[in-house]
Write a structure and sequence with these properties.
The complex is a heterodimer. Chain A is mainly alpha-helical. Chain A is built from three helices and no strands. The radius of gyration of chain A is 18 Å and the shape is flat.
Amino acid sequence: MMATILAGLFTHPIELPFPPLWLLAPLSLAVAAVYKTIRTPHLRRLPIEIALVTLYILGGMGMLMLVPWLLTRLL
Amino acid sequence: MKSSSRDNTARKTEPILTGLLAWIVPGAGHAYLGRPVRAAVLFLVIHLMFWSGVAIGGVFTVNPRQKTWWSRAQLCTGVSGLVTYYRQSQTHQRLDAEAQAHLPASAGPLEREARRQALVDKFKARDGLALVGPSGEIAIILSGVAGLLNIMCVFDAFMLSLMGRYGEPAPEARS
């Protein structure tokens, strides 16, 4: 029963209950996690470093989205 | 000082084997290099990302016929990528055989190919397997980026092994 449900889960596409743009957040988190896990010399500081890099990525993307949005509003 | 996790030269490791392990199971290369915490984080993050993509996009998230470069990136996740590749290949063969049975014998080779492709696409839609809209694209990106991140892990593990590093780096001396 469980195997059938799992097989169906990875066979048929699922409808996202939210806009796909929100998946940028876990994508940024994953990139930050892998990058910092490889690079950091101090494992104790890993969570805070991952959080910081995630915020940098999301902030950078937010800024990049803000510029064209402002341009379209002003022009 | 604890000897096993802090000693950088305690054990000789094989770079090719390290790279291969890191490709087959994301994080395994770092586990082999005596870095179990990093290995666990890499294993969890890369697998979660890849299988989230496959859950969103379904069996045709890996599709070498239509998304060649993305599928190559997805295969960089090792066993997970290979399993998904095999599943889509089996499903595609089944739909292909079904389409071949519906083709008219009188049609020329070009027409047959065009009709076969159209039928396969139709069957994918009928069975609810076709990727649709931005969710499909996001699914491919999630699983593809997981593979690209694993390339980074493979390279890191290979280089650490090549430099003879083993275990976590020693803490820096405080001034």
